[in-house]
Amino acid sequence: MFVNGVRKTAVALLGTALVAGLGLAGAGSAAASSGGGCGGTDYERACVSAGNGQVTAQAYSNFGNGNCNEEVILWDYTTGGRALDTTFPCHSGEYTYSYTLTNPSGGHDYKAEVRFYWPGGSGYDYQLSPDLFY
What are the distances in angstroms from CA 73 to CA 8, 45, 76, 132? Predict the structure, then answer.
């Protein structure tokens, strides 16, 4: 009877250790990213965030008219390249656009940038998010 009690205790402790180990593995993947957030002004902003195994670049604008083109870029600073890039016409009023990278690379440094190109070739305004280490 004592042997059965010891065996039951050992099985219970092993089960608890396995559950705890799985919990730690899950916590490791959930805590894999750090940093991120938004940078910019009240009318031009670039944000980067991570969640659900994805990295998302988000652009926000609030213009009186939509007389420009907007480019949203998700930079991978680790490789020095663009992970995502899209351009579209600006919108009047408040507008938010999200662009999601579904297969980010672990150990990489991502940053979102939004560029606003003005008519007449006068250049562009840009905003950068803080770095997100995934």
Answer: 57, 12, 10, 14
Q: Write 36-41 long-range contacts (CB < 8 A, 24+).
A: 36/129, 36/130, 36/131, 36/132, 37/129, 37/130, 38/129, 38/130, 39/127, 39/128, 39/129, 39/130, 40/114, 40/127, 40/128, 41/127
> Is 86's pLDDT higher than 60?
yes
From residue 92, how far is each of 9, 17, 43, 50 by CA, in Å?
67, 56, 11, 28
CA distances from 131 to 1, 15, 61, 103, 124 (A): 60, 40, 20, 18, 22
- Predicted local confidence at residue 32, as pLDDT: 58
How far is Cα 47 from Cα 2, in angstroms, rounded to an integer? 61
